[in-house]
What we know:
Layout lengths: L44 H9 L2 H23 L4 H17 L1 H14 L3 E5 L2 H14 L4 E4 L3 H5 L2 H7 L3 E4 L2 H8 L16 H15 L11 H18 L2 E4 L3 E3 L4 E6 L3 H7 L3 E7 L3 E2 L2 H15 L7 E6 L9 E7 L3 H5 L15 H5 L1 H6 L10 H12 L4 H5 L9 H5 L6 H15 L7 H12 L2 H17 L5 E2 L7 H4 L4 E2 L6 H9 L5
Parallel strand pairs: 1-10, 2-3, 2-4, 4-7, 5-8, 7-10
Antiparallel strand pairs: 5-6, 6-9, 11-12
Helix pairs in contact: 3-12, 9-10, 16-19
Amino acid sequence: MSTPRSSSPPLRPPERLRGDPAVSTPVQRRTPAPPPGTFLGMPRFADNAKVQLANEQLRKNLRHATGTIRAKRADRVAEVPEWEELRLAGEAVKNRTLRHLDTYLVQLEDSLTRAGATVHWARDAAEANRIVVELVRAKGADEVVKVKSMATQEIELNEALEEAGIAAWETDLAELIVQLGHDRPSHILVPAIHRNRAEVREIFLREMKQYGTPAPEDITDDPAELAGAARRHLREKFLRAKVAVSGANFAIAETGTLVVVESEGNGRMCLTLPETLISVVGIEKVLPTVADLEVFLRLLPRSSTGERMNPYTSMWTGVTPGDGPQDVHVVLIDNGRTRALADPDGRPALRCIRCSACLNICPVYERVGGHAYGSVYPGPIGAVLNPQLRGIESPIDASLPYASTLCGACFDVCPVRIPIPDMLVHLRHEVAEHKRGKPKLEPTAMALAGWVLSDRRHFELAERVAGLAARVLPNTSHLGPLPWPASPWTRARDLPMPAQESFREWWRRTRGEGRR
């Protein structure tokens, strides 16, 4: 549909905050500057992971947080005897929706329009950002409050708004921590999972006073005090903002209803207080009917936060006269989703409901964190989703399919049964095909392995060579990094020292039997 355009010049942020008596010295209204660089400018996963592995505090924070969430999820899932049936139902609903996505999207647009909302279509991040910026400018607003949204993080909406002179305030506690810390999110559900309470306290003391109501000088790292400081800091913004921006966990084609689930109540404030609500929604978030929603409202909270139900489940259908925002816009974004949809082997990634269960179970994610993946979608799902949404041309995206041990734990916990290990293998093949024609060591290594395994005499020769290395270094349990051409493999892996004596040699020595 057509996008409203504003003829007014770009708005500049006002010089001072207004209205909050708790701020003794007026400060500039500005959003925390985004961190330098972009996700796509990051090096490949292996290089990022090596840096993150050196951060002992990060690994400690991640081990504690993911372990806690895993245990809660396991307890809640164990309460549901029909859990596997629910997973199968969720998979079936998503598969049916994706097979007929064009039909359901048209139905969703019709339902939203009948309910009084305005629908906009965006092919990519640039188009979606332009639409949102023009909508905010048309309202004469110079700031927005935001509900936690992976879609807006994906398209880097905050940065686009900042460039247009519009302040974007994150109101989710974890997103606020990331924003005030000039940081990047590292987890789908808990973006600040890499921070501990002491670090959050320091961020609040240092940064809150720069953007509004300051944190109390005597604040401790008690979670209740930190949450209270965030609540006071955000209150003025909730009461002042004329425009809110949200995402949606689900969009119901049958009725035009959008659904947001959250745990803090900040989303409810954003969805009800402002005059204008702009929801940025990926086209894969569609569900056919309200009845389908029942399955996912049982799957999602147990898989994400380890709760039986989310504390706040907000649903809204267009405009309700006299109640809530009276100007409602929905921006439906593609941004690579139809490319994933066109690949039968990659399509299951679009079933993802952003629960983050695969991150919490993944041994790789637990040790390197989310920043190594170079996207707002980290962990196993990010390793399959990012290369499909963005392509495999960049070093970071081409490396992500290899950011896994293929242990299969991610599939076991996925509430919609996404076969992530199979998809990683598929994407590795795609990366290899993309690099075809470039010199590679892998064919040489496979040819050498074929020569060794094709003849018993070749295999025994290889065993004797390996045993020689063990006899030269008898007190060493592992081989360290080997020189090129073995260095790309061994610099990130510990290779056990080969046995000094092969099984064949042992058999001949102990049984006295000759060669056959």
